[in-house]
Amino acid sequence: MFKEFKEFISKGNVLDMAVGLILATYFGAIIKSLVDDIIMPPIGKALGGVDFNQLKMVIQEPVKAITNAAGEVITPEVSEIAIKYGSFINTIITFIIVAFVIFMVVKAYNKSKKKEEEAPAAPPAPTKEEVLLGEIRDLLKK
Question: Is there a contact between 85 and 51 (Cβ–Cβ < 8 Å)?
Fold first, then answer.
């Protein structure tokens, strides 16, 4: 079983896949930064100074803990509960950009593959029988 696993890991496809996954992870981080830090601020400015990351619908306001004079907690602290739809908008825009870039890469890849397929293949080498028949033909001509 260990030998099979070693063969599986040492195959080029697994290594290529691992490299692709690592690159895709960092590519996603770059696109997220592009959307969050470069694209969304001008869009927010154009929409009246809106920061999309701050857009949310608060369901429950945060509550600070209340203690009595003895230091006992009367009401516990409650965190804010909110639907962060601005962050969701950023994620959708990030997805659209990543999908478009991947589409362009796949399109370019397919185009290069098509060119390789269109290139004429070299004619196959003659078989032994064909070579022998050619020699017989040449001898008969003489």
Answer: no
Percent of the chain with pLDDT over 90: 6
Planar angle of CA 52, 55, 57, nearest 5 degrees: 160
Based on its alpha-carbon atoms, the radius of gyration of the chain, rounded to whole angstroms, reads 33
Q: Name the DSSP letter for residue 38.
A: I
- 64, 78 contact by CB (below 8 A): no
Say if CB 108 and CB 102 are below 8 A apart: no
pLDDT score for 140: 87
Residue-wise pLDDT for 102-112, tens only, equals 888 889 888 88
Output the pLDDT for position 119: 66
Task: For residues 51 and 41, give the distance between their C-alpha atoms in angstroms, rounded to a whole number.
Answer: 7
Show Cβ contacts of residue 134 under 8 Å, excluding neighbours closer than 6 positions.
126
10 Å Cβ neighbour count for 50? 15
What's domain 2-118's architecture? Answer: Orthogonal Bundle (1.10)
What's the pTM value of the predicted model, to 2 decimals? 0.55
Distance CA 44, CA 56 (A): 14
